[in-house]
Design a protein that fits this description.
InterPro entries: Cell_Proc_Reg/RNA_Proc, FHA_dom, SMAD_FHA_dom_sf. By secondary structure, the chain is an all-beta fold. Helix content is 2%, strand content 46%. It has two domains: 93 residues, Tumour Suppressor Smad4, CATH 2.60.200; 83 residues, Sandwich (Tumour Suppressor Smad4), CATH 2.60.200.20.
């Protein structure tokens, strides 16, 4: 799990684990990461984490957000990046790349066609998911299960079902809809074709057939 070392005048004041998909940074006490300094905006920035990737976004703060000396609007964080907000320096520490398979799980209830009998399923070309961007770019996940989930439970989850007719995807959790080829993915199963691209909060994944 990635973390931030929050420093002021060279002293580490706190270590924050990025345990939530969306974590706010600012002066006000309701933020996930509170930076008590007058030059820090009340709601200064947001850090969004999907799979192993974290993105920093400035919320139009008064004095700006800087990464490695450059003012940013939105920035893909990499290991050892140093974020500057007023008198604070926050060092981003990545924990290495975890296999994408660690984020796949079987979902017990899913509005999709029932799984095919083993003999029929065996005749299907095997489907794969390939991550197209971020630190996991190039990694693949074989869709060997009857139902595979991608995303974060309670936040945004897509399920991919394997049946005798092929593969289908549906949005089953989360207020914000993921995208399929740039359009919102429905909660009813949509058939997948080779080359289709899923987008989960900025992480793009292509559906491939062996």
């Amino acid at each position: 799990m990635a973390k931030l070392l929050v420093m002021r005048e060279g002293i580490v004041e706190q270590t924050v684990q990025l345990t939530k998909e969306r974590m706010s940074v600012g002066r006000h006490k309701h933020n996930d990461i509170v930076l008590a300094h007058g030059a820090v905006s009340g709601e200064h920035a947001i850090i969004t984490t999907i799979l192993d990737d974290s993105f920093l976004e400035d919320l139009q703060s008064t004095n700006g957000t800087f990464v490695n000396g450059h003012r940013i609007g939105k920035h893909f964080l990499q290991n050892k990046d140093v974020i500057k907000m007023a008198k604070y320096h926050l060092e981003f520490i990545a924990d290495g790349i975890r296999p994408l398979a660690a984020h796949a799980a079987t979902v017990p209830a899913m509005p999709a066609p029932p799984p095919a009998p083993p003999a029929e399923a065996a005749q299907l070309p095997l489907g794969h998911i390939e991550v197209l961007n971020g630190s996991n770019a190039g990694k693949t996940l074989s869709l060997t299960k009857a139902v595979t989930s991608l995303g974060r439970p309670g936040v945004q989850v897509v399920v991919i079902a394997r049946s005798a007719e092929g593969y289908s995807a549906a949005h089953v959790e989360g207020a914000n809809s993921p995208l399929l080829n740039g359009a919102p993915l429905a909660r009813q199963p949509q058939r997948l074709k080779a080359g289709d691209v899923l987008d989960l909060s900025g992480i793009q994944m292509a559906f491939r057939l062996a």
